[in-house]
Design goal:
2 copies of one chain form a homodimer. The first copy, chain A, has 156 residues and is of the alpha+beta class. A 4-stranded antiparallel β-sheet of chain A has the order 5-6-4-7. Chain A has a two-stranded antiparallel sheet with strand order 1-2. In chain A, β1 and β2 form a beta hairpin. In chain A, α2 crosses α3. The first copy, chain A, is elongated and about 60 Å long. The structure holds a DNA duplex (17 and 17 nucleotides).
DNA sequence: CATGAAACCATTCTGCA
DNA sequence: TGCAGAATGGTTTCATG
């Protein structure tokens, strides 16, 4: 592993370890060790280095939101009156738990958010009662995801 | 935990367990047990049920793409000549590793994708050489995420 | 990066309420 | 049906080479 000022290079073994763990964060290290032919301790050492280098941002359990009753995913482009009100708007958006992502974007809008809702009515209520009233928001454009056809992380 | 035909209800203890694991998938079950005051065995039982019910979709290691040299995230809206070419287009998009999400959306475009690139030039090359040439794609609109200000899962 | 020992954790089973 | 306790087998960590 080579560390430049900003970018880190990881070797093939690191990649192989990460590939397994990106698929299943709870996979036992010893099983991975057996598959790639080095000791479990060596993998732990590499993982510690990758963590220190900031390559590993953590691990997460993924919850199936559909099963919990959230069936509508939507993207909402938000126009702001002034780009300078971005900080305030994001602060408000953060308070809405259904907002999963928020991006400050180039192009038409100032902000693009991804949100998850129980149904279309829930989405409409959030738009009307939570998002549109935010100070500085002038207009929104909504795109409902009828189907998420790809969902993955970067391939190593 | 109550199981309806399609939607699952999870109680406060389930939520607490999941909250810990959504934050850190490798957190030892016994540590969680100690914090919430029930036995490790009980947590295992609950996790098994949640898994059977489909609430848990898996666990993932999260890799910091910026550290690996991917500094540009972009959303691309794709217009298709015919909506019916969606399936073929998605098949091609799946072959592009930089495409992390692909949604079939209502609104202006047929498809909205999220992709990650090394830099703006890399993004441009992917657009020109990989995405625009896909059969059925008539036009694209690109939104670069200057900053991702929110990134999280649904709150339980 | 490997080894081996020690500490720790996960998992399963049994009994109890 | 849900939980606790105990037992065992596996995992992680640490020291050392």
């Amino acid at each position: 592993m080579k560390i430049n000022s900003l970018q880190i290079e990881i070797d093939g073994i690191d990649k192989e370890i990460l590939r397994y763990l990106m698929e299943d964060a709870r996979k036992p290290i010893l099983q991975i060790a057996a598959k790639i032919g080095i000791s479990g301790a060596a993998i732990h050492q590499r993982l510690r280095k990758l963590e220190q280098a900031g390559v590993i941002a953590g691990s997460k359990f993924i919850v199936n939101t559909k099963v919990l009753g959230y069936s509508t995913m939507a993207f909402v482009g938000i126009y702001l009156e002034k780009a300078s009100s971005n900080f305030e708007a994001v602060k408000e958006l953060r308070k809405i738990p259904e907002v999963l992502e928020c991006h400050y974007t180039t192009g038409n809008w100032s902000i693009l958010i991804k949100m998850i809702c129980r149904d279309n009515e829930h989405l409409m209520q959030l738009l009307n009662k939570k998002i549109q009233p935010i100070n500085g928001v002038s207009r929104t454009e909504t795109f409902i995801s009828l189907e998420q056809q790809i969902e993955r992380q970067i391939q190593l």
